[in-house]
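Entry:
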Amino acid sequence: MKRREFLCTLAAVGALPVAGAALAEGESMVVYKDPNCGCCGAWAKAIEGAGIAVTVENLPDLDPVKRRFGVPKALEGCHTASVGGYVIEGHVPLEALQKILREKPEISGIAVPGMPAGSLGMGVDPAASYDVVAFRRDGTSDIFMQVRPKT
């Protein structure tokens, strides 16, 4: 295991106590990721540790998956997942995943664009600040949740 992959996995597993109870009993998720991406693997392990059965599909080209699920280019992250009829794009925090599965909003999915430092699977950063964006098939999007430094 490479040092970066180890550190990302450690950070993701460390985030599990924050997740609380299982996200949704009986839910299962498919995560599509590059076979060489350690941070995506760390994210998937954190989700699995929070109570969702995870199946990982390693693919050399994720663009067809992102297009099939309707992920807007501007919202792309480094991996794509599906759970409960929703698309989960990038390093979405457990709290946002819990919220979408609990509230079941009328959206296609949620995304954390790019790979923000401190997001789930991307290490620990107390100054982490990024948005989780909700998106719809009609191309509209809005802020679903804000992640800001704890003060």
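The chain has one domain: 3-147.
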